[in-house]
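lol ok so funny story. i was supposed to be doing the assay writeup but got distracted and ended up predicting the structure for this chain instead. priorities right. anyway since i did it might as well share w the group, maybe its usefull for someone
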Amino acid sequence: MNVIQNIKEMQQVITSLKNSGKKVGFVPTMGYLHEGHQTLMKQARKENDILVVSIFVNPLQFGAGEDLEAYPRNFERDSIIAEEEGVDILFNPAVNEMYPRSSTVKVIVEDRTDGLCGKSRPGHFDGVATVVTKLFNIVLPNRVYFGLKDAQQVAVVDGLIHDFNFPIELVAVPTVREQDGLAKSSRNVYLSSLERDQARELYQGLQLAKRRIEQGERNPEAIEQLVKAYILKTCDAAIDYVELRSYPQLRPVDTIVGKVIIAVAVKFSKARLIDNIILEIV
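and the output, tada:
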């Protein structure tokens, strides 16, 4: 496995590989790799000649009071996991390599961010779109892999690829879960044992909503209230949001029809967890 920290070197290596006809699959991460990331790597490994994984904790997507400094990091452990998954190139730039000076151009996300995490984290998706744009131009992938646990991020990246005409295929991979349903996340390490037991109820609340929709409920507000009541009953945590929207457009809907997402964000004492399910209603 080749570990690269320099942007120009990364571009040169990738350009040479692509000129020889190799297809490049790319998994961007912020490190502290877990089974969710490994699932992305496994799929990318199967579908491409070259697998590139980036590890970069992007400061632009952390707001005031968020956990940038506390965000878990363990590059040695991540390197072992990446090598075990058959990663060809591990791109691990420093912050001053990615952002050597103040920007002259900014990437601003205009749509798909007025709700869900975008509502309570202003500027977050601008930071995501900025770093993803840079990484696309550095790694030059044919395919990029994101997990649907961060479904709003997937929707934003989908818009970015289409609006800026990146010649990249976006592969959205289903959420990887623990046996009890909790979505795998680097932030799960912040949960106390009691909170960990309660956190599984987020997915149970989403499943309750799914069953109610399958039984014929078509009122979005009724579904949102159902999930909120369930979480408040089962978790000692604060609800950031419960929202039902179209997907990937992420617009409010008057009635539940077509492709929709039911998404939740809940704040425990030291961790903010998100989860969602996506349904196709005819």
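The domain at 2-173 is CATH 3.40.50.620 (Rossmann fold). The chain is about 40% helix and 20% strand.
back to the writeup now i swear
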